[in-house]
Design brief:
This protein has 528 residues and is α+β, with helices and mostly antiparallel strands. The protein is built from 15 helices and 20 strands. Strand 12 and strand 13 form a beta hairpin. The termini are far apart. The structure holds zinc ion.
């Protein structure tokens, strides 16, 4: 009977309509906390009608085409095509109206990348990116382009957005793939970023309002926006200092000015019995962390939006818009100073000889989570146990090598690392070298690969040996700004490693990884 009723219901839906999940209905008392932000002009497709609506792929394309036609500053390009054949647009905004990445690099201005809607069911960030592109192209923010280059990817996950789904068409979470680069959409983004490397990246998301928060803590998430910088043990300290000393205060000032509320970004595990919350995650493949490891200031911005349809939509989009504007304004205040500090941070990584933290645990502490009573709307600060991704407790620590020798899948590894700004070399002449080899033991926990704090797939013991390194071997030096990417990818027991996920394949009866640590590279003869 129920099956028949469902069938009839599907017949009654208008042709082409999507079966959207029913949004969580917030009470009037709750909604009263989240009125529209006053005096906002959001020039984007969703706000051209009295009631906002989701912007379709076609409406986004039409909007961007018109933007480029009516502005001398905006050039609209394409990152590529999604799994289901949709175009992934990118907007380059410069005072000169340049589209060519090499020409834009020549301008010598800070390059700010803003990414919307990596998760398709988090529309407010993507909509705000359209409004921001308009404000830069032909509106009140255009003067900022004398100081900055802005690159906007309004909708990184176009297939997910078309179906109101978090994940890519492949089912993968794009925001766990930035080290691995296995998904075409993520790879396309990194190809464009490789051509025009970011100095600052802001990644715009939305978080769940009800969901596990009601099950575990009997309340709704209250903060308008949750924010987190890159958190991984190898994020350069000087980059974190810029993030927390320059950008976070600018964001908080904008939040206070508009009467919004904020909190550090937290999430919680699906397991109902686990009542802890995590301050983001440390996985090197999360966009926020990958961009930090490759040498950019990197932030996650999340508004209160998943699961509530278009409730409070103007406020959510406005929040993303206002914070992105704050990012641009603080970057434009002293562009030369920003570039100098970034250059110093990157040079410090290249010169770093400190030990590598390959795996770690995180400290825990109590915090008051800002929740709100689902019926009465009363705010309730709720004490919870926080797994603190800023409080790193090293577990596997080893000396930083001069570099890594990769004896298998070298071309594939070189391509993936290169897209994340890791420079690689090739051995010109074969020679015997003293190396450290990894004896690998699989832990059998590969299923947690997409967790924010993934488990190690392998454990290793290290053995010194002398080996013949053939000509043509890939050598990945560590004296470079993106060294943290190289170590995360190539130490086999790092929880995102290329051995662990099979990019560097190993036979089931093999015990020694085809990756070697070279502590002294002075005897290697490399191709120029
Ligand atoms: Zn998201």
């Amino acid at each position: 009977m129920r099956r028949r009723a469902l069938f009839l219901l599907l017949l009654l839906l208008p042709c082409g309509a999507l079966a959207q999940p029913t949004p969580y209905r917030q009470t009037a008392a709750v909604l009263a906390h989240y009125p529209p932000v006053a005096d906002m002009h959001l020039d984007s497709p969703a706000f051209r009608t009295p009631e906002p609506s989701l912007t379709s792929q076609d409406a986004m394309a039409d909007f961007l085409t018109a933007l480029a036609r009516n502005s001398a500053k905006a050039k609209v390009g394409s990152l590529g095509t999604s799994t289901h054949g949709r175009d992934i647009p990118v907007v380059y905004l410069t005072a000169e109206g340049l589209a060519d990445s090499a020409a834009i690099r020549q301008l010598g201005r800070p390059v700010i990348w803003l990414i919307g809607q990596q998760h398709g069911n988090e529309p407010a960030g993507g909509e705000a990116m359209l409004a921001l592109a308009a404000a830069l192209a032909r509106g009140e923010l255009a003067p900022l382009l004398a100081k900055l280059t802005v690159v906007i990817v309004p909708r990184a996950n176009v297939d997910g957005a078309a179906n109101d789904k978090r994940v890519l068409a492949s089912g993968a979470d794009s925001n766990r793939d930035h080290l691995l680069l296995s998904q075409p959409e993520v790879r396309a983004l990194h190809q464009a970023m490789h051509a025009l490397p970011p100095d600052v990246v802001f990644d715009h998301h939305e978080f769940s309002v009800a969901w596990r928060w009601v099950e575990k803590f009997n309340g709704l998430q209250a903060a308008d926006v949750m924010i987190l910088e890159a958190t991984n043990p190898s994020i350069p300290k000087a980059l974190s200092a810029i993030a927390r000393g320059l950008y976070r205060p600018a964001l908080e000032a904008a939040i206070r000015r508009e009467g919004l509320s904020s909190f550090d970004y937290v999430t919680t595990d699906p397991t109902p019995a686990d009542k802890r919350v995590s301050l983001g995650g440390t996985a090197p493949g999360i966009a926020r962390n990958t961009f930090g490891l490759r040498g950019a200031v990197s932030y996650l911005i999340e508004t209160r939006g998943v699961g509530i349809g278009l409730q409070s939509y103007q406020r959510r989009v406005s929040t993303h818009f206002l914070l992105a504007r704050a990012v641009l304004e603080v970057s434009a205040a002293d562009p030369a100073g920003l570039l100098r500090r970034l250059a110093e941070a990157r040079a410090a990584v290249a010169a770093d000889r400190a030990d590598l933290i390959v795996s770690h645990e995180e400290g825990e502490r109590e915090v008051d989570l800002p929740l709100i009573n689902a019926e009465s709307g009363v705010l309730m600060a709720t004490p919870v146990r926080l797994i603190d991704s800023r409080d790193i407790r090293p577990v596997d620590v080893r000396p930083r090598p001069a570099g890594y020798l990769v004896l298998r899948a070298g071309a594939d590894v070189a391509e993936r690392l290169g897209l994340n700004e890791v420079g690689v070399r090739e051995v010109a002449t074969g020679s015997a070298q003293d190396v450290e080899a990894y004896r690998v033991k699989w832990t059998g926990s590969r299923k947690r690969r997409e967790a924010i704090n993934p488990d190690q797939s392998v454990r290793v013991t290290i053995e010194k040996k002398t080996m013949d390194v053939p000509a043509g071997t890939l050598f990945v030096p560590m004296d470079q700004p993106a060294a943290g990417i190289a170590a995360a990818a190539l130490e086999p027991d790092s929880p995102g490693s290329y051995v662990g996920v099979g990019v560097i394949p190993m036979a089931s009866d093999e015990a020694e990884a085809p990756v070697y640590r070279l502590l002294d590279a002075s005897g290697l003869v490399l191709k120029p």
